[in-house]
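Mods, move this if it's the wrong board.
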Amino acid sequence: MTITIFHNPACGTSRNTLAMIRKSGEDPVIVEYLKTPPDRARLIELIEAMGIGARGLLREKGTPYAELDLGNAKWTDDELVDFMLAHPFLINRPIVETPKGTRLCRPSEEVLQILPNPQIGPFIKEDGELVVPASSPRR
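Not the wrong board. Structure tokens:
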């Protein structure tokens, strides 16, 4: 079984998600999408698998979103994909694919919904937030 994470190591949410995947016993394929962005077909495949539309995958913070006027409803999904391909930092992260589904894992604990064997016991995010209390049942 293959789990893939589209990862940005500079992002705390992405690092937390990767740590949760590893704590579940999985060794995921890590795609540092800023270094190796997906091609058009792959990006569209991910958007469709998540069922969120291209606009749902756009990242605003710390990107050229405002300068490019991407909040304007005039842009089609195809045009938004073009912007993400030209500026991969516009792609929100982390995206995780597992045999149970594909999700934009914001917040990072969203990954627990699609992991084949989600971790049992506590997980503490980098910021100190407890995600899965020790008494939580296995999902």
